[in-house]
Amino acid sequence: MHTRDWIEHRRADGERVGWMRPEGDGFVPVDLLGRDRAPALDWLSAEELLDELGIGYLAEPYLLERADGAPIRVRIVEVSTEGIRVKLDDFGAIDGPRVNFELRWPMPPELRTWSPEADAITGWPGA
User: What's the pTM?
Assistant: First the structure.
């Protein structure tokens, strides 16, 4: 994906929270997963939206539909414009096997935000 003309946005503490992609007379706020978070806005509104979003969504569970069609619950380990690395959600277990998956950036369709309905699909606790 072409990101050359995107403008990096960092919050006050220096943490990158996304980009603003020029579009027409405005700027589309883009999160760290490469998702457009709103249509084109004025500069200040785009900055405010990215600041409000922060990076907390990276700590949330996600649903990954594997190549064989089996959905699994994962957590994001690392994200950059080079790719997204997720791991099987082990609920913080320190003695279990580490199962990682490398995905392309921006966030591909097989990776989706987790929802309560996903518990029933995957059979994870809480279903």
Answer: 0.87
